[in-house]
Each structure stands twice: as C-alpha cells, then as structure tokens.
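Example complex used in Figure S2.
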Amino acid sequence: MKNVRKQKRANKSLPFFFKDEFKVSFIIIFISTILLITTFSFDIVPPILNRGIQPATFPKGLLVLIISLTLIVYYLSFKKPWKIEKKLPKTFYLTLTSFLLFVLISKTLDFFLAISVLSIFVSYYWGERRIFHLLLVSIIFPIIVFVFFETILGLRFPPGIITNIYYQV
Amino acid sequence: MDNLLLMMAPLFSSKLLLVLFFGTLFGLILGVLPGLGPTTGGALILPFTMTLDPLSAIVLLTSIYCAGTYGGAITAILINTPGTPAAAATCLDGYPLAQKGEAGRALGMATVSSTVGGIFSVIILVFFAPLLAKLAYEFGQPEYFALAIFGLTMLASIGDGSPIKNLIAGAFGILISTIGKDFMTSIDRFTYGINELSEGIGFIPVVVGLFAISEMLTQSTLLDQVFKRVALKAVKLPSLKDYKLTWKTILRSSGIGSFIGVLPAEGGTVASLIGYSEAKRFSKNPEEFGKGSIEGIAGAEAANNAATGGAMVPTLALGIPGSATTAVILTGLIIHGVRPGPDLFREQPEFLYGIFGAMLIANILFFIFGFFGAKIFARITLVPNKILWPMIFAVSVCGTYSLSQSIIDVWIMLLFGVIGFFMRRYGFSVVPVIIGLILGELVEGTLRQSLVIFDGNWLMFLTRPIALTFFILSLIALAFPLLRSKKRKKIL
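Predicted assembly (661 residues):
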C-alpha cells in the first residue's frame, strides 16, 4: 500500500507528457482519430440498398465512443493518478524482438525454422542453458507439434526450406 | 425421466467418456498453471476439436471449463498465485491456511465446495436455460439488440479494473468485428486493400494473442519471481465440524455464483469475489477472514464453480456469452455448425442434454482427480517457464495457423499479443475485447435490422417493453460497479 502511494506521488511529480495516463490516452485517441478519418473514405450505399444505416456509421459511432471514454479516463486520472509501472526488463524486449524475428523468418525462410529459432532464442534468454532442454523446446517439441497437426488435422504448412524437405520425404 | 436419461448419455458412450476424461485432466492442468486457464486452453484446443463430432467437441470444451475453474484453487492454496483469475479470492484464505500446515484441509474444502457449486449450477442450467430459451422466442431484432447492449454494459463490472477502461476495451472488441466486408452490403471496412482482411479478423488469433501471447510477454517480465510452495501431504475430506461451519456458505455461494454466471459477460472472477465477501458478511467469525478461514475458501470456490453452469445459460439459450471461456465455447459451437438459441432447444434437445450431463460428470471427475491427484497436479507448477512458454508458443502458432491455413492469422495473433500485454499493463482487461468481438456482429446486425423495421426512428426502441427493460437493466449495469466498489471497500 505504501509503495503504491509512493508510486502515485512520484507519478504526480512528472511533467504531464511523461505520465502513463497521457501517453496511453494520446495513443488511443491518435489511432482512433486516424481510423475515424478512414471511415469517411468507406463507400456509400445508395438509399435503395441501404440497410438501416450506412456501413460507415456504426464504426464511426464506436470510434467517437472510444475517444469520448478515453477523454473521461484521462480526466479522471487528474484526481486519481495511475501508479507508475516498473521499467520493462531486457528479457521483455528480447522476447518482443524474437516475435519480429519469427515474422521475418516465417515470411522469408521457413515456418518451422521460425518456431525453432524463436523457441531457442526465448528459452536461452529466459535462462535455460542445458543443451538437452534447449533441443527439446526448439527441435523435438516443434517436430511433435508439426507431425501431430499434419497427420491428425491434415494440415498443410506453408512451403519453406525445411518444410519442403519434410513433404518430399 | 427422459431428460435425465438424455443427460446421462455421455456415460453410455465410451468415446464421450474418454473425451470427458481427457478434457477434465487437461482442464485441471491448465487451471493449475498460472497464466493459462480454461479460456486460453479452450482457444488452443479449438483447432483440435475439428476432428471431433460437435457433441464431443463441446463436451471437451465444457469439461476443460469446469475442471480448469477448479484447478486454479490448487495453485492459489499452495503457492499463493491464482491459477485462474477466478481463484484470486481463494488465495486470501487458502494460502494462510496452508502456511499453518493445513494445506490438505484447505484443498479438501476447495474440492468439495467447487464440486457442490458446480453440480448446483448444472441443475440451475437444466431448469433455467430452457425457460430462458422459451422467453427468447418473444425476441425480435430490437430485443436482441437491447439484450446485446445489456451484455456489453455488463462488461463495465468485469474484474477489479476501471469500468470505463472495460467499456473502452469492449468497444475496441466490437470495432475489430467491423473489419472486413460489411456483412449486409459487402462494402470493405478497414481492409486497406489487404485481401486477407476482407473476411474479417478471426476469433482464434485474437483470443490466443490476447491471452496466451500477452501472458508470454508478461511472464518475460517476471523471470526473477520466486514462488514459495507449501508442502502438501494429502488432500483431506472436510471434517464434520467443517461441514457444519460451511454448508450454509457453500449453498449461498452456489446460488450467488449461478446467478452472477447467468448475467451476460460476468463470470467466475466476479462470482468468487462476491461469494467471498458475502461469506464474510454472514460469518460468525469475520475476523478470521484473510488469516485462513475455511469459510472464506468455501465461499469463493463454491461461487466460482457455480458460475460455470450459470454462464452456460445465456450462452446456450441466447447465444450471448456468460464469460470469456463461454465465448470460446460459443465459437466452438459456431464453427461446428451449431447455432445457439431457442431453436437449438427445440431441434436438438439431445445435444443440449448431452452437454448438461457432461458438465455434471466433469464436476464429479474433477472431484476424484482433485482428491487423489492434487499433489501430482501441484508438481506441474514446477515446470520452468523457460521450457513451458516456448512450447505454448509452438502450439499457439500451429493452432492459429490451422484454422484458415493463413500466416496472416499468426501475425495477427502476435500483434494482439503485444496489444494485450500493454492493455493489461495499463489496467485494461482483455476479456471485454473478446466478448465485444463475439457480440459485435449481433449488435450491428440487429441495430441495422431494427432501424429498417422502425423506418430509421430510434425512439421506437422504447416502445418495445422487453427492449426497454434491457435498456433499463443496462443503466443499472453501468451504475453497478460504483455501488460494488463502495461495498467492497466496506467489507474487505
């Protein structure tokens, strides 16, 4: 409880644009506004085909609602500031990087390879150093999952350097 | 009598019994592992259900739901970390009692009260769901719109978070449902020329992303966390003295849990908190709460398991999910070609009674598993995260890919994983997003059809008594979180 109070006090002393409540509200409103502008480019249905309202009306209403509610959340944060979250550790950023790596490898090289690389990368940076365990998560388990999905569900995985070899065998 | 026989149908099919057995076992494992749980587990298992017939698939999902809700108590009592959010209130007294060397007694009470709560709620489900379905025959498009709005306003009171943040998350979920071709006019919305988005965003990538992948990111920030595990010798059945002390609490919490479960969008988490606080209010020894009160455990556990049957009532009778996990079950029903609602009760009663029976048996099965196997299940928590989460990632990726065989779905899953992480970090619950996504099409579709009926006159909604009742209930639902937070401050 004391820590929360301390964090709240610390949060109060920050300039407004550094505060989480401002950053989060700004991002939500900024994205919602862009999406709201996009809705004006949706096609308009002629009155004879129109079912109740235009296709853009409903998302427009939702976006206005999101923006309004976010403004209320931001206003309420003046009275009750959010607690400051702990700084994110290095392992978080490494895990996030591994997702990007996954997207890159699955798009350019191979889906299976992408899973393996992510698994070994995450497991290693989360502290696993034993070779067998690293092999288990990066090769043995993905193979089991792959074979299971392929045989039981009849799934065809996207082509890639390793997957092609598997399908040729 | 015929209905009872229909309910017992799963017992007469070896295949269904096997599905129930594995569903309960898998549900327990998911419930025990902090960060997973029946919602994520259900979403991960959905692709596998495609190889099963509809009844087996739903039996699998419901048994995971029942057992997973109970499984959370094992971790709550032994390591002071709720395996599922619904077990959060169980920590308050379960762990202190375990620290006093009475882990077996605490788990015994959790097991018995969960089973009683679960069975009580199935009875409620059997009697109440057909009645609600009959009532739903009176519903037209405006009534369904008002009902969906009521379901969405109930999102405000989910969990401990800010009601307004929950509403923002719910609106975000509905917004996601508008991506793709407009289902009435085929006009593209938010597709930005990407063909894959024309079909809209699937439910599974969003659920797996928001629950499993965001949890993986959360776990990456908690690597230095050390759990203190209390040793467990064996689970003990409650003594006669414990039964005398708690039977009223168990029955009261079962009723509360079933009622809260029936309310759209509410679920075990809210039920267990209210069950716990009511147990404290009625207790002769309220000062023991928070220090290892057996009544506290009974109150929370009976309520959260009673919410399972309750939450299935609106899911099956109206097609409105009663909780996040029932949203997954609802998706399971839809992808297997079963449309929940009043017609289901008229056309496929044997299917529904099969589900009721399966839930009943799942409650008995998890009692047996919990009683004899809690010690083994508790050991599952020893699997290190550095091994567990890469494996969950592999299953998440393959499961998400398998539904439409689209790599875009996998990327959407990752994107929602990151969104979910930041939402949770800043106090936005991810559950409203899921329920908003499920209800989005219903809300928009019924609104537009109602406006066609009303010739564009919005005020006509107020001339329909059932719709008006739901709108009034929606206003009450919006006010409820304020009243509840005041009451909780007083009690806890």
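The radius of gyration of chain B is 22 Å. Residues 2-491 of chain B form one domain.
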